[in-house]
Structures are given as C-alpha cells and as structure tokens.
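Lab notebook, design round three. We kept the backbone fixed and only want residue identities now. Task for the bench partner: fill in a sequence for the structure below.
Input structure tokens:
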C-alpha cells in the first residue's frame, strides 16, 4: 500500500499506522481520511494483522483535528457530507474486528480526539492535550465526538469539554478514563507496541467477541444486554480457541490460539 499522508509498518502481526502531515499537525484532510479508510480496511481483512497502533508523526501532535483549510470552504451541505464521511471512517475503525490502539503523542483535538475515541484503547504521552475545540470555530464536533465523548467520560465532563472547547491534559484524561495509561513521550510507542503484542497473543476471535459485546451491550437496556452477553458467551465457547484456552490451562501450558 502506497500513501501520501500515512506511514505503515507491519512487523510480527502488529501494524503501526502513522498519520504523516506534521507541518499541519497531522490534520485530517479528505485525502488523509480516504487513505486511513483504505489502509484500515486492508489491515482489518489481513489475518496476519493482530493489532493496530495509530499515532501521529512528529513530537507535537497525534492529530490536531479535521483540516480547517478544507472546512472553511465547505457549504452547509458539504459540511453535512464531510461529517458523514468522517463518521464512516470512525465506524469502520470501531467495527474493524482487529483491536486498535491510539498512541496519543501530542495534540488530539477535534477530529483527532474523535479518531482516538473510535479506537479500542487509548494511551497518551504525558504532555498530550485532548479536546474538542470546534466551538471556537463556530461549529460542533462532527466525527462522532458528541456521542463517543459522553459515553467515555460521562455527559457532564463531555458537555464541559465541548462547550468550553478547552483541552484537558493527559493526567486529567487518565483520571476521567479517556485514556487508560500515560507514559513519558519517549516511551509511548514502545508501550503501545507492547500492549499490541499482548493483544496479539490472545485469540483474535475472542478479542473481537469481547469488544463487540461491551460496545453493543452498552447501547442496550441492562436486561437485554446481559442476555446478549450470554449468547456472545455461547458464541465464544463455540470456537476452537475456547477448547484450546481451557485445555491449555488444565494441561499447564501456554495456549496457542488460532482465531476461530
Ligand atoms: N487544520 C489545518 N491546519 C492545522 C490544523 C488543523 N486542524 N491545526 C494546525 N494546523 C496547522 C496550522 O495552520 C499551522 O500551519 P502553518 O504553519 O502553515 O501556519 C501548523 O499546523 C502549525 O500550527 P500552529 O502554528 O497553530 O501551532 P501552535 O503550536 O501555535 O498551536 C494548536 C497548536 C493549539 C494545536 C493549534 O494549531 C490549533 O489550535 N489547531 C486547531 C485545532 C482545532 O481547532 N481542531 C479542530 C478542527 S475542526 C474539527 O476537527 C471538526 C470535526 O470534529 C470533524
């Protein structure tokens, strides 16, 4: 795969996909959004790829948002289309089936935070800043932020962030559960790779069922959600990896998962 705005490295089942527009703080223009969709679609259907790390090039930004130069030219109808286009990428990431880790190495603002929130897990560098500053541009988050942010941090904190536009630092993001770990900047990518390697050692099938059950279950009423959990539990138990995991434990050996 050849890209203008992305760097892709795949090693030992782990893909590191870097958004590479450092002069624009890795802002997501249309071309980058389309390239991300192409790259992730391809990686998601490659059985060899067990986990994907998403990060930004340079030391300053993960992604500083949707590209404001492009947004400024859009009519209302084009803005609506743009929002749907960005949302479809975020949905693709969330539904990819392969776990994605956002390694937030600096500013994750607007569409950048929305991209990180579509990932399965988020970790950050200690100097990172996360926010939805769209209000300062006379617009609202449009790549799913109004919905994923309250689901991750609660409505009060989401409204505070979206209405003030003020970013939070990595430690606050950790405290609020928006990220699950914070590391010194120089360690972030190694830690992301380590986490990816840990996930790569599990059953890809069971990982997928677990993530789907949490995500879809959260959208249901509790009684419906636990019924769904029971059927997903049954689904995971129908796999060869279930047999392998159980027997490996009983035989005191490391499980060799196959992904089915
Ligand atoms: N779009 C396009 N270009 C951007 C950008 C963006 N989102 N963010 C930064 N850049 C560009 C700047 O224009 C600048 O380019 P030039 O050198 O050509 O002038 C370059 O990146 C470096 O940026 P700054 O000089 O501004 O760097 P700084 O250190 O002074 O400030 C910053 C950093 C606080 C992140 C600041 O760049 C900033 O506020 N960026 C915009 C953040 C933002 O509002 N994001 C939301 C976008 S809207 C959105 O995402 C909608 C949605 O939900 C889909």
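Proposed sequence:
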């Amino acid at each position: 795969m050849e890209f203008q705005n992305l760097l892709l490295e795949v090693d030992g089942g782990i893909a590191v996909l870097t958004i590479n527009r450092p002069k624009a703080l890795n802002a997501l223009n249309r071309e980058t959004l389309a390239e991300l969709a192409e790259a992730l679609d391809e990686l998601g259907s490659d059985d060899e790829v067990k986990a994907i790390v998403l990060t930004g090039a340079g030391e300053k930004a993960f992604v500083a948002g949707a590209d404001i130069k492009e947004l400024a030219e859009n009519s209302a109808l084009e803005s609506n289309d743009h929002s749907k286009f960005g949302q479809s990428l975020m949905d693709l990431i969330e539904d990819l089936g392969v776990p994605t880790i956002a390694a937030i190495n600096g500013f994750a603002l607007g569409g950048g935070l929305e991209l990180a929130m579509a990932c399965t897990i988020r970790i950050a560098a200690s100097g990172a800043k996360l926010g939805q500053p769209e209000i300062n541009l006379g617009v609202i988050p449009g790549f799913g932020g109004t919905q994923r942010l309250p689901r991750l941090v609660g409505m009060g904190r989401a409204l505070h962030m979206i209405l003030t536009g003020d970013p939070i630092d990595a430690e606050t993001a950790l405290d609020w559960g928006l990220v699950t770990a914070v590391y010194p900047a120089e360690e972030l990518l190694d830690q992301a790779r380590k986490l990816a390697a840990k996930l790569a050692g599990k059953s890809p099938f069971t990982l997928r069922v677990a993530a789907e059950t949490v995500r879809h279950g959260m959208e249901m009423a509790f009684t419906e959600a636990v019924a769904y959990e029971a059927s997903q539990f049954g689904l995971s138990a129908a796999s060869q990896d279930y047999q392998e995991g159980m027997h490996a434990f009983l035989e005191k050996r490391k499980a060799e998962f196959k992904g089915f």
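Keep this in mind before ordering anything: DSSP finds eleven helices and ten strands in the chain.
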